[in-house]
Amino acid sequence: MAGKVAVIGLGDIARKAYLPTITARAGLDLHLMTRNPARLAEVADQYRVPEQRRFTDLGELLAHGLDAAFVHVPTAAHAETVRRLLAAGVPTYVDKPLDDSLAGARELVELAERLAVPLMVGFNRRHVPAYTEAARGPRDLVVLQKNQDGGSGGVREIVFDDFIHVVDTLRFLAPGPIERTLVAGVVTEGELEQVSLTVVGGGFTAIGTMHRRAGAKQERLEVTGGGVKVEVTDLGQVTRHEGGRVTRLAEDGWAPVARRRGIEQACTAFLAGELPDLRDALRTHELCEQVVAELTEDGAAV
Predict the structure, then answer these.
(1) Best exposed site among 17, 179, 199, 292 by fewest CB in 10 Å?
(2) For residue 248, what are the domain limits?
């Protein structure tokens, strides 16, 4: 896809991962939008975006007739921003989640379907090279830990803004239909301290956990099956165990961060029109809503 492509929201994720990826593509006419004039000027100057393609108002941006948009605004603003883009007929890529509620996510999916406008949710771990490789082998047991070093929050906030990565990755790696689920966690005075999700199907178990005060920020995946265990640390360091032998696969130290984290591949798929099933993305939101419900049954604050 070439043409007028907008990046809406210029926070850390947009500046560190998406803009370096998008601006490396030929034939794109970059438009930038944020409500922060100082940040807009800084980022636009960095990428030599002319004044006529800098915006602080979504209505003015839409008046320029976009061909595609990447949405990186805070989660609370996803619904309004995506709704207006879809109504204008603009193919839209949005950071996870679509919305911080199942009802809001479903509304956006149904709107995209009704208007026949492409919509993609940025589940980048489905594109991480080490994870896609792990998905090709036997997967009798999947264990994924995504821990943080501080930064607690309410149950709904943490589940939909962070644990959703774990939920979607378990669904991606599950080798068959999920038949049963088990949710557990610790909520203290309305703050989510730790959470786990276990999904079970025919011949497989997948377990995802998150601890918000683990002393280190780390993601670790273990996939076991067919006499082989593959470990992936922080999305890129791969260790393979087979027949008593341990092999540590070399990382490509020159690969950009966005490629190692699957963001470059996700952007490429979106701009090429190779969109994943939107209803499948909705099913991840459904499972997140189930996690929230089960963690707040005792009346803890959402």
Answers:
(1) 179
(2) 125-270+282-295
Tell me, what CATH number does 51's domain have?
A: 3.40.50.720
Residue 301 has pLDDT above 80, yes or no: no
User: Partners of 249 in the beta sheet?
Assistant: 238
Q: Which residues, in sequence order, are CB contacts of 142 under 8 Å at separation 6+?
A: 170, 173, 174, 204, 205, 206, 207, 221, 222, 223, 224
Q: Which amino acid is at 59?
A: G
123: amino acid identity, one letter: F
List the structure tokens of 257: 């961060």
Q: pLDDT of 99-150, one tens digit each?
A: 999 999 999 999 999 999 999 999 999 999 999 999 999 999 999 999 998 7
Residues 69 and 139 in one domain: no
Name the pTM for this structure. 0.93
What digits encode the pLDDT tens for the residues 74-93?
999 999 999 999 999 999 99
Q: Which two tokens stand for residue 210?
A: 């998150």
